[in-house]
């Protein structure tokens, strides 16, 4: 072989090597891109009328996280999930010209390259970040957002046999409120959701085929009333045979709204704007300063009943308690209230020298029309077995975050931090919340979950109750065959188990069509997640 041939051979090999490396790099890039979970931003834009003939456009990140089956950690844990932190900086900007609306995704992040890197590292890619809608499309999107949660009216009808052997029907309003995520004891005058649901009734008329059952309402605008609070009632007229009426025998309990309690006074404070994220509260600490002023010294028998409160709190259904605190918060702020989130949650256990056996405390960061302040809501001498009302809640405000976080006013109390809504109980420190198949709630595909058993999930030091609820919700989608993004936390976890056989995208409606129980279970878990995060 002469020198010329050697040169040609070397040149050919070099070119082939360069092409091979280039192909590998390009192939690797597209392979990586292909494995990213794509999120169509335009799907998560909410449109509302601005009251002046125009529209307000907002990006619904909470709905995005839910629909894309992404984890939704509390703010204090966002450093562990940089891709979620990046998503939570997103917003949308719209410009209207000649009846056309140009929209684009914007971010409050100052580090554009870091924003993209965080999404990619988390296996996410945004698509449709710039698009145009006609007015007709904007109107369709606005109407779509109003429809919200869908509930089957027939699921809430129970029958009763009369003395003459015929049947009548009644509406299980209490269960309807529960599944709609609306407080059954809310004041209808102040809560449009409660007012709409309480207007509903049911008629039952015997005919040749059996019994014609229809939804009724005392409100002539019931459809609009429900839509305004994000509810849609389906299957409102049908016929049941005698056999079907027999199968639906049952009793119902209609909730009676409580009289609004007087607003609790709180010291006047000057709000101070603050955008800081609070630090994670310490697990346990001994308090060192003054005791809170008691509203009344507890009776000795109450102290005796609450002696084991710290043990009983684990697994205690806090739903009604937290609803009462939320009602007190909203009544205190009234029209000034814009948004709020729970920042700290404590349970303080007293001694013989303290005026209260225990104190349950939520601390909110509240955004009002005047700025941001911290609201401290206390419930004294938790009885654990009785109902709670707005009047049981004692409020005070702080403008300083460190003072709001402090428990120095609980002198003589042992203070426990309830991270993610509950606390790690010593007896369960070695007990996994997951069973052998990696499931938190194995029965959720076929049976209804209760708030009580959800609060009873054995939280460990590794995961908060709020995080575990996310797994309990998404394991239903996983069992239904949903394909999570390859780099998502849920995909990495569920892929460890042989039962996880993803087939493609699965929506809540898809899941409910095959497993009806999941519709209510997803709603209950989502409501509890919202209650823990936002009160």
The helix content is 25-40%
Number of helices: 18
Strand content: 15-25%
Mean pLDDT: 77
What are the segments in which pLDDT stays under 50 over at least 5 consecutive residues? Answer: 28-32, 256-308
| Straight-line N-to-C gap | 83 Å
The value of Rg in angstroms is 28 Å
Shape: globular
Number of strands: 20
Structural class: alpha+beta
Largest sheet: 6 strands, antiparallel
Widest sheet: strand ordering: 15-20-16-17-18-19
Detailed description of the structure:
This protein is of the alpha+beta class and 535 residues long. It is 33% helix and 23% strand. It has 18 helices and 20 strands. It has a 6-stranded antiparallel β-sheet. A hairpin with a 5-residue loop joins strand 2 (45-49) and strand 3 (55-59). Helix 7 (192-198) packs antiparallel against helix 8. Mean pLDDT is 77; it is low at 28-32 and 256-308.
């Amino acid at each position: 072989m002469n020198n010329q041939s050697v040169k040609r051979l070397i040149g050919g090999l070099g070119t082939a090597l360069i092409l091979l490396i280039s192909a590998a790099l390009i192939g690797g890039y597209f392979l990586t891109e292909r494995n990213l979970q794509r999120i169509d931003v335009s799907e998560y834009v909410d449109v509302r009328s601005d009251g002046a003939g125009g529209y307000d456009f907002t990006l619904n990140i909470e709905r995005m996280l839910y629909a894309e089956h992404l984890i939704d950690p509390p703010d204090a844990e966002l450093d562990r999930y940089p891709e979620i932190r990046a998503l939570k900086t997103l917003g949308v900007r719209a410009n209207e010209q000649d009846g056309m609306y140009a929209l684009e995704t914007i971010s409050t992040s100052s580090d554009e390259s870091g924003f993209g890197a965080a999404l990619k590292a988390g296996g996410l890619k945004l698509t449709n970040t710039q698009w145009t809608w006609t007015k007709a499309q904007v109107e369709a999107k606005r109407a779509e957002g109003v429809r919200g949660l869908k509930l089957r009216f027939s699921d809430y009808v129970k029958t009763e046999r009369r003395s003459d052997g015929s049947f009548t029907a009644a509406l299980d309003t209490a269960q309807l409120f529960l599944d709609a995520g609306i407080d059954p004891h809310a004041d209808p005058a102040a809560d449009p959701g409660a007012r709409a649901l309480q207007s509903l009734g049911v008629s039952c008329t015997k005919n040749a085929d059996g019994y014609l059952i229809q939804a009724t309402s005392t409100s002539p605008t019931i459809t609009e009333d429900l839509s305004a609070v994000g509810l849609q009632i389906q299957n409102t007229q049908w016929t049941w045979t005698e056999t079907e009426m027999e199968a639906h025998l049952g009793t119902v309990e209609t909730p009676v709204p409580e009289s609004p309690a007087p607003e609790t006074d709180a010291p006047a404070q000057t709000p101070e704007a603050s955008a800081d994220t609070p630090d994670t509260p310490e697990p346990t600490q001994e308090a060192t300063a003054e005791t809170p002023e008691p509203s009344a010294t507890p009776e000795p028998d109450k102290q005796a009943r609450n002696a084991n409160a710290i043990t009983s709190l684990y697994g205690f259904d806090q739903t009604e308690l937290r609803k009462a605190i939320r009602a007190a918060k909203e009544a205190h702020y009234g029209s000034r209230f814009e948004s709020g989130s729970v920042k700290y949650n404590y349970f303080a256990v007293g001694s013989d020298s303290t005026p209260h056996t225990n104190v349950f405390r939520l601390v909110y960061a509240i955004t009002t029309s005047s700025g941001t302040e911290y609201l401290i809501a206390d419930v004294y001498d938790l009885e654990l077995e009785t109902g709670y009302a707005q009047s049981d809640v004692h409020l005070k405000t702080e403008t300083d975050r460190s003072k709001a976080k402090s428990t120095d006013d609980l002198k003589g109390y042992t203070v426990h931090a309830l991270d993610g809504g509950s606390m790690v109980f010593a007896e369960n420190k070695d007990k996994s919340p997951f069973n052998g198949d990696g499931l938190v709630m194995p029965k959720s595909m076929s049976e209804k979950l209760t708030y009580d058993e959800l609060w009873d999930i054995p939280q460990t030091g590794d995961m908060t109750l709020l995080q575990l609820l996310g797994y309990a919700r998404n394991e239903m989608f996983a069992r239904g065959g949903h394909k999570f993004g390859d780099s998502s936390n849920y995909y990495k976890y569920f892929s460890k188990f042989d039962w996880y056989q993803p087939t493609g995208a699965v929506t809540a409606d898809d899941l409910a069509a095959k497993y009806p129980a999941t519709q209510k279970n997803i709603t209950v878990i989502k409501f509890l997640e919202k209650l823990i995060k936002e009160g």
